[in-house]
Amino acid sequence: MGKFTGILLASDMDGTLYGHTGRILPADREAISYFIAGGGTFTVATGRTRISLKPLLPQLEINAPALLANGALAYDYLIGETLFEQNLEGGYLHAANIVAREFPEAAVEVHSPDDIKTFRPNEGSVAHMAYICELTKEIARLEDAPPPWLKIVFIEKPEYIAKVRTFISERFGGEYALMSAYSWFLEFLHKNANKGAALERLSVILGFKRENVYCIGDADNDLSMLTRFKGFAPDNAEPEVKAAAAQTVCDCDSGAVAQAIEWIEKLNPTDA
After folding, report:
1. DSSP characters for 124-139?
2. Per-residue pLDDT at 22
3. Burial 15-38, CB ≥16 within 10 A → b, else e
4. Do the beta carbons of residue 45 and residue 62 sit within 8 Å?
């Protein structure tokens, strides 16, 4: 029984554990190993899907199912099995086509569990695929992307994406979940899919007490878990994210996750 036994920590990837250096920092990797060796359970809660997290797996030590696609999918890489999945349902294709017609400059990415397809690629979507080291097949119609769909991503300049968000909110109300990892990015998911709900579901399945669940993240798509659990925000996080977090740590390029683990150790000073 180590000092971190009974503690679950979920970290966002981009802008938190994976910064602007193009790698996970040695300090963060060492801290995660220390946390796991001390009995802790560590995983990631990311907007990436199974295919887009794959390039980072050699750098990543996790000992619990990963929460992917902003909570729409929980996948256990240790045994190669899906724990739970929340795909888009109902009239999502019709809704996506309405939005795509209304905003013709936006690229549209369709993310399935093992596949990414792009409709009307633009500079932003090409840059996104390069960033996650993934190839995508261009499609002529959204109908050409077979189900299931985990999420739809609209990509354009921030001021344009703000209009897309407003349109979807006004046209479809609460039918879908909307969140952003970046200002030029708008993700469209099942209304029940978010990191907070997924982390809560995972913690129940794994048997963790709510007070022993921690998380860290930097963006709008992390708010659902930062408002439910004890949360940390890296210094590079958006202002509303810092406000939601219990503690701000150093920025993502200086070892934010390592510093969060230091805080967890201070909060749990004795062995379980």
Report:
1. HHHHHHHHTT---EEE
2. 84
3. bbbbbeeeebbeebbebbebbbeb
4. no
Closest CA to 88 of 4, 136, 158, 150: 150
pTM above 0.90, yes or no: yes
Show Cβ contacts of residue 252 under 8 Å, excluding neighbours closer than 6 positions: 15, 16, 17, 18, 19, 20, 218, 234, 236
Residue with token string 């086509």: 97
* Structural domains of the chain, ranges and CATH numbers in brackets: 8-86+194-267 (3.40.50.1000), 92-190 (3.30.1240.10)
Residue 95 in contact with residue 176, Cβ under 8 Å? yes
How far apart CA 111 and CA 92 sit, in angstroms, is 13
Phi, psi (rounded to 5 degrees) for 154: -100, 135
Give the separation between CA 257 and CA 47, rounded to whole angstroms.
Answer: 17
β-bridge mates for residue 112, sequence order: 115
Q: What is the pLDDT of residues 38-71, one digit of tens each?
A: 999 999 999 999 988 988 999 999 999 999 999 9
